[in-house]
Amino acid sequence: MADPTDPLIFDATEDDARQMQRLLAIMACLRDPERGCPWDIEQTYSTIAPYTIEEAHEVADAIERRAWGELEGELGDLLLQAVYFAQMGKEDGHFTFASIARNVADKMVSRHPHIFGDESRDKSAEQQTLDWERQKAAERELKGETRTLDGVALGLPALTRALKLQKRAARVGFDWTDVKDVLAKLQEEAAELAEAEGDADALEDEMGDLLFVLTNLARHKGVDPEAALRRTNAKFTRRFAAIEDALAAGGRTPSEASLEEMDALWTAAKRAE
Question: Which segments constitute the NTP pyrophosphohydrolase MazG-like domain (predicted)?
Fold first, then answer.
């Protein structure tokens, strides 16, 4: 039976430092080679990484849906990923939670000289963004990342990575100056995709080119392509649910309806919105 006096199990305080120490101690217990959880002990950086990506997306999803009641839990799940990596890093002698926190705190101080240093705070958010990018570029150079596209994480969602690659290239002048040129390139890639029909490898290649140009168009229009696609996914889910609800009212399922009928119900759902 759980000990009600054990602070790892029962602690309702609202003290930030105390609850952070509690979480770190819980993770250390879970990873203990002799008394820990078999599943947690078996985990590695590689096996936890997919969960980290998933939890980050769930945070973004809760924000997108404005599900504020869920956001606290999703943020906790995301924090747990950092704690997991910190414990493994401590076990391997690579880093600790304290060094992780210190590193990012030092980074925030160094990248905000207008707040923590002698620079004037009187500058625009746009200027601050430019200064931030210059500092990041200097940090990349110190790490030996001298090419323009170095350091853009491979593990990012493809649309997000495409956007970051394009922004990096644009900073050194490799970019269209007129959105009309992007639209022309979009038509060109769409035509090449149509011509690739029947060749699986060429089809995948041309589909990638088309998505890349669409991302570029979104960037020039000031639209986040990842957010735009999430919005459309939500819209599709909502309208298809309306089709299912309409059919269910008559005792049927989508597989029992014709495409024409479902298309009409889709149009009705769209008008209702």
Answer: 43-116
